[in-house]
Write a sequence for this structure.
């Protein structure tokens, strides 16, 4: 065989080998990226699901402890305000869409804003012994937050091919929708009554 043919064949073989290695590296990095994204989605959706459950607890807080008021005869918050922290050093935030990362990482800011509104309502608009307006605002804000967390968790699962959350006995999302709607309806009725009542 001619030396030129051997060199050409060797060069072609080398090029094919390099292209094969590049393709294998690219496919491997895509698979790794997908696995990182799935892992992040699992971890974050789990935290969001727990937050949803905590929101339901807040919505059910009427200020009574085992049906009783405190020693002063007043209602007071019984359920600790839920927290949501995404301290996840083992996940790769670059593995998912940057808009989704922004939604996730800005969520604690929404909680903080809701808590400020709740605090102001308790301080300026709610009166003893029941503090009805304060508890209503707390229930309304945590219904909104819980629904938002549930939607974010569901979107993460759907985007990354994970199964939806199973609700064995009852669905916390439907419950929060119902509670939020009841408060909205009550507020609308009150607002309508105030508009038509010439005080």
């Amino acid at each position: 065989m001619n030396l030129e043919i051997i060199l050409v064949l060797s060069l072609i073989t080398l090029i094919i080998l390099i292209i094969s290695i590049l393709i294998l590296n690219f496919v491997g990095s895509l698979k790794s990226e997908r696995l990182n994204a799935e892992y992040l989605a699992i971890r974050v959706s789990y935290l969001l699901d727990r937050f949803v459950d905590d929101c339901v607890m807040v919505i059910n807080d009427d200020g009574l402890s085992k049906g009783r008021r405190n020693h002063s005869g007043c209602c007071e918050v019984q359920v600790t305000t839920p927290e949501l922290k995404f301290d996840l050093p083992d996940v790769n935030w670059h593995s998912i869409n940057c808009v989704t990362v922004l939604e996730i990482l800005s969520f604690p800011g929404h909680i903080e804003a809701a808590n400020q509104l709740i605090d102001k309502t308790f301080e300026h608009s709610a009166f003893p012994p029941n503090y009805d307006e304060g508890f209503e605002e707390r229930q309304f804000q945590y219904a909104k937050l819980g629904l938002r967390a549930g939607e974010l968790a569901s979107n993460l699962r759907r985007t990354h091919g994970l199964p939806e959350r199973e609700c064995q006995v009852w669905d916390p999302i439907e419950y929060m929708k119902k509670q939020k709607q009841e408060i909205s309806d009550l507020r609308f009725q009150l607002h309508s009554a105030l508009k038509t009542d010439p005080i």
